[in-house]
């Protein structure tokens, strides 16, 4: 089982519901109202950015190359081959921002207050990524690559 | 699959990455790793965090003993490889043991440069800052030392200064040049860093050099070139590193500053590879072989060497200078070339202590500098690495809202199956 997040850019309206639910999910309370008053504001792992009237949610894609893992001087980032996931060990992280420096997608942000990298972990603490259900137009897809291929057959990737 | 004897000299970033790459492809060959240190692989870059007390020795572990067992690696610790005999294809240890190889990876790293001509440099209390043992020895002395002096304003020196300050030492940094981190950042960035160190109670003596280390056996003071004497019982030398190439001096393996390798991480001698701080690979921004003694490059190079030993023909694109550090809350990232006779665009806000600069050669980005705000710096690393034509997005390069969407159509993305 190695599901990944995919985004249907023909549907995304850049409403940023994914950003909101992500940030709340990364807060200590996991409640919107309470999260807003938390001393250290939680940051969203996904950011929606636009180009030529299309909207692109940008988040860690757990890429095969994962330069962040190579760059991690603390051994805090590792690649889990079974889950096809870049894993993060907060206990080892020292907040050196090497991962931010090498992410080819600019998908790792620095949480300066907590000294931790903010990056999508596919909500390992929940059953599925929170952004999935939060998206009002169904632009976020969470599937195994093979399942996606079946779904995509008639369609071409952009 | 034929089984080979693969020997790796060196057990840090490059050596470990090589092991992992080999074992992804080959479970049969015998791997022997030779290290002159007494630990399994540790996070060398974090010895300053260890010195500062923000992590303990456990936090330094990069790969534990189990890693070597799981990967069926014979790990020879506290064994110094004295020389390589490329004709007989073996490695000779200090105790004269011969270790034969079919394929060899030299990943011996680098050692601190000690100014041998400096009078008194061998006195007790004068340290290099490269290994756990260095950090531990320094730490032991901080219990009795009050003032620590750092010789050198580069990364190593500043990291030592940071660590010692956190341990309550009165820290003075003595820098020969007129600014801090002069090899990695430009004048403006230097001034931001200088301010941050001074604001945190560290005295920085620029344009100064040490002419003598004074003391009988134990150091007691430093004499500066202007005649001034500073009483201190602890000094750390941060004058850069030099590659550990002594063991191949008698061979025909080609060296320049370090061991020269081609894009497959091969030396000029068959079946002998080099990776990490000891090797001099192609530098993408300089356009010639250069040593970029940095952890991320060592990992990549080790991985390429390992993969290519197993018969892959993976071409390593090359390295370039890149560094990310944070001192007292000030984040600094320097990528590629930071200065020189090139077009530059920059933005500085002294009050917010934010600085961003890009260096452009024609229509290519060759360098970027970030102080205080480092968001999206990875995109710049990518633009440099992939030699992207940036003429169309020049005006966006200083924009803090630049994102992957902006460069999406410019970069090489084989088959982007994320956006459908």
Automatic annotation (TrEMBL), chain A:
Name of a matching Pfam family: Fer4_11
InterPro entries: 4Fe4S_Fe-S-bd (IPR017896), 4Fe4S_Fe_S_CS (IPR017900), ET_IronSulfur_Cluster-Binding (IPR050954)
Keywords: 4Fe-4S, Electron transport, Iron, Iron-sulfur, Metal-binding, Repeat, Transport
GO molecular function, one term: 4 iron, 4 sulfur cluster binding
Protein name per Swiss-Prot or TrEMBL: 4Fe-4S ferredoxin
DNA repair as UniProt keyword: no
Protein's UniProt keywords contain Heme: no
SUPFAM superfamilies attached to this UniProt entry: 4Fe-4S ferredoxins
Organism name: Candidatus Ghiorseimicrobium undicola
PROSITE patterns with a match to the protein in the record: 4FE4S_FER_1 (PS00198), 4FE4S_FER_2 (PS51379)
UniProtKB/TrEMBL annotation, chain B:
GO-annotated molecular function: oxidoreductase activity
Protein name listed in UniProt: FAD-dependent oxidoreductase
DNA-binding recorded as keyword: no
Entry-linked Pfam families: Pyr_redox_2, Rubredoxin_C
Keywords: FAD, Flavoprotein
Cofactor: FAD
Organism this protein belongs to: Candidatus Ghiorseimicrobium undicola
Domain NADH-rubredoxin oxidoreductase C-terminal residue range list: 323-387
Family: Belongs to the FAD-dependent oxidoreductase family.
InterPro entries recorded: FAD-bd_OxRdtase, FAD/NAD-bd_sf, FAD/NAD-binding_dom, FAD/NAD-linked_Rdtase_dimer_sf, Rubredoxin_C
Keyword Cell membrane included in the entry's annotation: no
Top-level taxon of the source organism: Bacteria
């Amino acid at each position: 089982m190695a599901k990944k997040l995919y985004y249907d850019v023909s549907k995304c309206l850049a409403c940023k519901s994914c950003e909101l639910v992500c940030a709340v999910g990364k807060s200590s309370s996991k409640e919107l109202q309470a999260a807003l008053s938390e001393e250290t504001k939680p940051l969203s792992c996904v950011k929606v950015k636009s180009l030529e009237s299309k909207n692109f949610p940008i988040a860690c894609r757990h890429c095969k190359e994962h330069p962040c893992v190579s760059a991690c001087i603390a051994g805090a980032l590792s690649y889990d081959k079974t889950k096809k996931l870049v894993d993060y060990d907060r206990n080892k992280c020292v907040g050196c921002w090497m991962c931010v420096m090498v992410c080819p997608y600019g998908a790792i942000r620095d949480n300066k207050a907590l000294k931790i990298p903010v990056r999508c972990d596919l909500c390992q603490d929940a059953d599925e990524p929170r952004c999935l259900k939060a998206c009002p137009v169904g632009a976020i897809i969470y599937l195994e690559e093979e399942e996606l291929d079946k779904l995509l057959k008639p369609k071409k990737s952009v | 699959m034929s089984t080979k004897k693969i020997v790796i000299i060196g057990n840090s970033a490059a050596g470990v990455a090589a092991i992992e790459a080999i074992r992804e492809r080959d479970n049969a060959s015998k791997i022997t790793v030779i290290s002159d240190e007494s630990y399994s692989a540790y996070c060398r870059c974090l010895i300053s965090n260890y010195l500062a007390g923000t992590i303990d020795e456990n936090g330094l572990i990069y790969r534990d003993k189990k890693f070597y067992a799981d990967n069926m690696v014979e790990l020879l610790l506290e064994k110094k490889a004295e020389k390589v005999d490329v004709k007989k294809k073996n490695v000779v240890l200090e105790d004269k043991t011969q270790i034969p190889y079919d394929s060899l990876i030299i990943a011996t790293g680098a050692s601190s440069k000690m100014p041998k001509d400096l009078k008194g440099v061998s006195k007790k209390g004068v340290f290099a800052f490269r290994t756990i043992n260095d950090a531990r020895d320094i730490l032991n002395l901080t219990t009795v030392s009050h003032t620590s002096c750092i010789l050198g304003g580069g990364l190593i020196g500043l990291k030592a200064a940071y660590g010692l300050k956190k341990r309550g030492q009165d820290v003075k940094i003595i820098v020969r040049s007129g600014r801090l981190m002069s090899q990695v950042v430009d004048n403006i960035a230097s001034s931001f860093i200088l301010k941050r160190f001074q604001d945190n109670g560290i005295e920085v003596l620029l344009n100064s050099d040490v002419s003598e280390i004074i003391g009988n056996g134990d150091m007691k003071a430093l004499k500066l070139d202007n005649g001034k004497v500073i009483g201190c019982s602890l000094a750390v030398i941060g004058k850069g590193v030099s590659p550990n190439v002594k063991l191949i001096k008698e061979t025909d393996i080609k060296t320049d500053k370090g061991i020269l390798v081609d894009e497959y991480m091969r030396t000029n001698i068959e079946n002998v590879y080099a990776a990490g701080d000891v090797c001099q690979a192609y530098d993408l921004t300089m356009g010639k072989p250069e040593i970029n003694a940095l952890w991320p490059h060592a990992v990549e190079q080790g991985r390429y060497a390992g993969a290519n030993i197993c018969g892959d023909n993976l071409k390593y694109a090359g390295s370039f200078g890149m560094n990310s550090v944070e001192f007292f809350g000030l984040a600094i990232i320097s990528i590629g070339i930071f200065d020189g006779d090139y077009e530059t665009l920059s933005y500085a806000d002294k009050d917010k202590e934010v600085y961003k600069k890009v260096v452009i050669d024609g229509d290519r980005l060759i360098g970027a500098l970030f102080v205080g705000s480092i968001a999206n710096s990875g995109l710049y690393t990518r633009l440099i690495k992939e030699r992207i034509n940036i003429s169309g997005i020049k005006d966006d390069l200083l924009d803090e809202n630049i994102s992957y969407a902006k460069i999406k159509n410019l970069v090489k993305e084989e088959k982007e199956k994320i956006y459908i």
